[in-house]
Amino acid sequence: MSGTEEMSKALKATTPGFPEMPSTIVRATIVQASTVYNDTPKTIEKAGEFIAQAASDGAQLVVLPEAYIAGYPRGYRFGLGVGVHNEAGRDCFRKYHASAIVVPGPEVDQLAEMARKNKVYLVIGAIEKDGYTLYCTALFFSPEGRFLGKHRKVMPTSLERCIWGYGDGSTIPVYDTPIGKLGAAICWENRMPLFRTSLYGKGIELYCAPTADGSKEWQSSMMHIALEGGCFVLSACQFCLRKDFPDHADYLFSDWYDNKHPEAIVSQGGSVIISPLGKILAGPNFESEGLITADLDLGDIARAKLYFDVVGHYSRPEVFNLTVNENQRKPVTFVSKSVKAEDDSEPRDK
């Protein structure tokens, strides 16, 4: 018997009425898979197959990677260079824009139905189009088939800034659900301390991290966030081979393995689930597409926060304070004045 178990047993023996706490277990699954590039209907169909498989194994929460719908454009150059514009790049963007989805819209309705049919909470990365601007977005759905809302990535990384817009503070949600408080940070947003703190401040418990970062170093970030936030971290990354991408001479892949074969790994996955106590519960998987599943004991959140509650007893609000602007930022605001017409139905005083 471990020291912790002995202490618990002694406490029960010496404390009158010590309750036997019910265990709250949530089964969570990450889908590690590649987009079907330039084919959004097939991508959604593929997602549905994985979601159904996860649900058949008892999953209550299913998480898919960053930009799963429409795809993470790894290696795409879009013809970009300082002072350079070309037709090939424009046409590449046209195709990418065509694969993106409107939120809400028919594809969102399809995903909501998948969540309802399989009775799961669903978090999935998508490229959202708002007019002709694209956003890297995480979508949230309930087991009742309701679209809960979205999070737009607030800070695209590097060349992503040339093709994706910036989200604002109006889409940084944490949803209070029966399985825990659910939210997301996308890819390198997870490296932004103030962004993480905004999620901690909303009480996040199921911290989803859809990403395109399959590096070994990424695992250290996920471990740190689990310990810092006292939350479960579910990091979902695509696993892609060169053959999964459209053939294009201008793509610049940095392969994980030094060959140019169609089977060469381009995105190596590394999806992982980590507990608030810093235990790796499932993954990381660097080998293939597939499901990464773990049972989450929500009691671990309280166990972790006994010693460290980053926005609670371990904070110093009189010294450090964060203000988050949740107002929607619009580039154009129309203000109209309603003028009441003079009523001529009544005679005027003379």
What does this structure look like?
Keywords: Hydrolase. This protein has 350 residues and is of the alpha/beta class. The protein has a six-stranded mixed sheet with strand order 5-4-3-2-1-14. A six-stranded mixed sheet has the order 6-7-8-9-12-13, with helices on one face. It has a two-stranded antiparallel sheet with strand order 10-11. α2 runs parallel beside α4. The chain has one domain (24-306): Nitrilase/N-carbamoyl-D-aminoacid amidohydrolase (4-Layer Sandwich). A hairpin with a 5-residue loop joins β12 and β13 (280-285). The longest helix is centred in the N-terminal third of the chain and has 17 residues, at 40-56. It has helices at residues 3-14, 40-56, 87-99, 106-118, 193-201, 216-229, 299-305, and strands at residues 25-32, 61-63, 121-130, 133-141, 147-152, 174-177, 180-184, 206-211, 232-237, 239-241, 265-268, 271-274, 280-285, 290-297.
